[in-house]
Amino acid sequence: MQQDGTQEAIEQVAASKSNGRNKCMLILLGLSLVITVVMAIATGQSIPDRPFGISGFIGEQLGFALGLFLLSLLFFALVRRKRKDNVPTAGLGTGIVCMLIWSYFIYVGATSP
């Protein structure tokens, strides 16, 4: 009977780690989409007036969001891999900070003369 309780406890820990990781990844994805919209508004981007201009604009924005997400996910994964604690949000702060720093550099590069 004791072995069954131990096995259930191990499964619960594994499930909570997986849920925490998935929630953190969704937070990073959502934040990258929000930052992409804010950056498009802040830099004054508009949809080009040419054939299929909107598809190019949407593709550019999705590419920017994907780049931000992958960059933050890389640092999130590195921190999560190095920390051996059972903290479900390990690495989330690092991913968010890297995303914000990268966005700032892109904003400064886009608005400088």
What's the short story on this structure?
With 113 residues, this protein is mostly helical. It is built from three helices and no strands.
Explain what this protein looks like in three dimensions.
The chain crosses the membrane at residues 24-42, 62-79, 91-110. Keywords: Membrane, Transmembrane, Transmembrane helix. The protein is mainly alpha-helical. It has one domain (20-111). Helix content is 81%, strand content 0%. The protein has 3 helices and no strands. It has helices spanning 2-42, 53-82, 92-111. The radius of gyration is 19 Å and the shape is elongated. The relative contact order is 0.15.
Shape call = elongated
Number of strands: 0
Distance between the termini: 72 Å
Listing every helix as H and every strand as E from the N terminus to the C terminus, the arrangement reads HHH
Catalogue the unreliable spans. none
What oligomeric state do the depicted chains represent?
single chain
Q: Give the count of structural domains.
A: 1
Number of helices: 3
Structural class: mainly alpha
In percent terms, what proportion of residues is strand?
Answer: under 5%
**pLDDT averaged over residues:** 85
Helix content: over 70%
Output the radius of gyration.
19 Å
Largest β-sheet summary: none
What are the SSEs and their pairings?
Blueprint: H1 2-42, H2 53-82, H3 92-111
